[in-house]
Amino acid sequence: MDRRRFLTRATMTMAAGIAGPFAGVACAGERGEAKPVRGYGPLRPVADLRDGKVRLHLPDGFAYRSFSAAGEKFSDGSAVPGRHDGMAAFAAPRGTAYLVRNHEVNGPVGAFGDKGKAYDRMAGGGTSTLRVTRYGEVMRSGPSLTGTMMNCSGGPMPWKSWVTCEETVNGPDVGDDHSGGDNSRLARRHGYIFEVPVLGAATAKPIRSAGRFAHESAAFDPASGALYLTEDCFRFASGFYRYLPPANPVKAGRLLDGGRLQMLAVKGSPRQDLSAGQRPGAVYPTTWVDIDDPDPTFTGKPSNDEAVQAVGRQGRAKGAAIFSRLEGAIHHQGTVYFVSTQGGAPVPDAPVPDGFGKGHGQVWAYETASGRLKLVYESPRASMLDLPDNVTVSPRGTLVLCEDGDGDNYLRGLSRQGEIFDFCRLAPISGDAGAEFAGSTFGPGGHTLYANIQSRQGMSFAIWGPWQRGAF
User: Fold this and answer.
1) pLDDT above 60: residue 145
2) What is the sign, positive or negative, of the torsion defined by CA atoms of 120, 126, 130, 136?
3) CA gap 229, 52 in Å, rounded
4) CATH code at position 28
5) Could you give the number of structural domains in the chain?
6) Long-range contacts of 425-433 (CB under 8 A, 24+ apart)
7) C-beta of residue 378 within 8 angstroms of C-beta of residue 341
8) How far apart are CA 133 and CA 97, in angstroms?
9) Which residues cross the membrane (predicted)?
10) Which domain holds residue 259?
11) pTM of the shown model
12) How would residue 152 be classed by pLDDT, with cut points 50, 70 and 90?
């Protein structure tokens, strides 16, 4: 665990004197001190209580059960799709939880579930909803939104809905993307966000005013009624957005279309490149620029590369900031924490990852009241943090980061005192080297951490144990 300690300023990401959560990162950094890591101890192989196979490495005292794997059956008899991704947990009766879970399936492979209810009968992504015990026993499950595509992450809403995000702009009006698939076979345009109520099926109506771009995550600020959105434009610059609906969704009981989409910019510094390595203590005053055409109509069938940049280019033409691959986002106590997967300076002795950005990860914090943007953490080396993706927050305010690296992938913790530690390592999956963690979310009361494996052989996990022993 010594390698997890913060030893130099290069591993720090906030300046001394900045108050609030994660200020401990700055204080130790300015003094050049190491901090004791309040993790949970060494990781060891632990057998899955479902079938005895070792799928996760965890600290002593923790146990888990996998459930709802790709190819298994929902309660209605239809097949569970793969590519399990973003997820949220909501309170259900008698201490159980409702899980709303994304499936990041690309290509015109056909909708799962009832095709008559699908947004696009040819698209294979969407969401499933499950009721589970805190030990991962499935009580009921089924499709809740089908016919969407590349449902990567999203976010839980306080009116008991999940907003799911399509990380693509595929459709019959644009060229094929780099992963293959014939877009001419699609019936509808994609690249939108959709609302999925916890109870009942979704309407399958996109919120078009929230933009058509490579959406990743959604985080709602109840104080202002704004929905913050991240963009993972893998090969090009990405942006940080907010959608201002025409009515407060808490009062309306749902997210309404017809609002205004904006993109974040740094005050006095148009097109500030925040994808590059940042100075210790990076803090930026911000403003917002309007996106005039959030749902562009394409003519002449442009290439996918052109279409995926259409919304972001509008914002950057007005001075919006540049990020690298924004992925997970979560709102907590007036702050939206979001992850830049490949942001930061190049990491010594580590290959430069494919896509836009040369670093191995940044964690940003946007204060919704002040408009101040702060860098919480920037990875100094891949062994400490390697390409973070989804993010959630524990009951005690520690961030849980899901990795999407090239080697071993971990669930890492980043505490409010600035300590980063390993909590869980994914055991290798035969024939699926690209498997990664996704969808981490704590269930009601904090007893269980639910998480997904995003892969062709995707599945979900319930993890429980002596949380009081560490920072979660």
Assistant:
1) yes
2) positive
3) 39
4) 2.120.10.30
5) 1
6) 425/43, 425/56, 425/57, 426/55, 426/56, 426/57, 426/453, 427/45, 427/54, 427/55, 427/56, 427/57, 429/453, 429/455, 429/457, 432/456, 432/457
7) no
8) 6
9) none
10) 2-469
11) 0.93
12) very high
